[in-house]
Amino acid sequence: MSIVGLAHRGYPKKYPENTLFSFQAALDLSYSHLELDVNLTKDGVPVVIHDPTVNRTTNGKGLVLDYTWDELQKLRTNGEQSIPTLEQVLNLAKGKAKVDIELKQSGSLYTGMEEKVLEVIRACDVQDQVFVTSFDHYSIQRVRQLSKDIEVGLVIYGATPSVFGFAKEIDAKYISVKYIYLTDDYVRLCEEKGIQLIAWTIDDEDAMRQIRKQYPDVWVCTNELEKWKACFLEMASK
User: Fold this and answer.
1) What is the pTM of this model?
2) What's the sign of the alpha-carbon dihedral 54, 35, 176, 144?
3) Which of 63, 127, 190, 236 is deepest in the core (most CB within 10 A)?
4) 8 is catalytic
5) pLDDT tens digit at each of 238 positions of the chain
6) From 50, 96, 116, 142, the catalytic residue
7) Would residue 137 show up in a list of annotated catalytic residues for this protein?
8) Where does the chain have alpha helices with state H?
9) 8, 9, 137, 142: which is the annotated catalytic residue?
10) How far apart are alpha carbons 60 and 46 in whole angstroms?
């Protein structure tokens, strides 16, 4: 059975986040979705890493943007993994799981990021197996301007009704919101507007059970893959 949920950066509780090993672990657990983060190298390669710097997750220092792809390949995580390209992860997930590609755009930090990401998606031929999201809603607006077909979503912190007008304008199919802000009214609003609600990031077992029981159609994003899998299967069997 497919486990309906988003594997947050793969399986970071067991493997270095946003690495091929971490994503493979999520696929091995039959997760329906992988969630990943994209930054851009100096030479315009979309790479899968959460932070704008390599400081926290590798043995290097500095901005991702200051490294070429060849230079970035020489860095290693604490698990001795390299930073993968978006292309590598999409090819790994192809035909196995859908991918939530979160763009770590910040204003005009990454010139051409949206174009580069769409090029990779098309090159991997996974247009129907991905959706693109970001906290930077201007970035998602640019994605929509560049592609009328690719699915897009908006990441927000607190639940707000003000997002729905913009979501309709750009035909956003997903809204990701910090789970503590979920309410019956907000979940109902998303359902009425045909938007898939994603709750991030839930690692507590009690919170998982509550969300699963109260809002069974909300997708959960988690770092605790085995906990959510157990909760999902337990509730599915009832």
Assistant:
1) 0.98
2) positive
3) 190
4) yes
5) 899 999 999 999 999 999 999 999 999 999 999 999 999 999 999 999 999 999 999 999 999 999 999 999 999 998 899 999 999 999 999 999 999 999 999 999 999 999 999 999 999 999 999 999 999 999 999 999 999 999 999 999 999 999 999 999 999 999 999 999 999 999 999 999 999 999 999 999 999 999 999 999 999 999 999 999 999 999 888 7
6) 50
7) no
8) 20-28, 69-72, 86-93, 113-124, 137-146, 163-169, 184-192, 205-214, 225-236
9) 8
10) 18
As given in the structure block, the two tokens for residue 230 are: 């157990």
Asked if residue 94 lies in contact with residue 129, where contact means CB atoms within 8 angstroms, the answer is yes
Helix, strand counts (H, E) of the chain: 9, 9
133, two tokens: 């999201």
Cite the DSSP H helix spans in 9-135: 20-28, 69-72, 86-93, 113-124
Q: Hey, what are 78's tokens?
A: 């604490």
Q: How far apart are CA 202 and CA 199, in angstroms?
A: 7
Query: What token pair was written down for 69?
Result: 């792809």
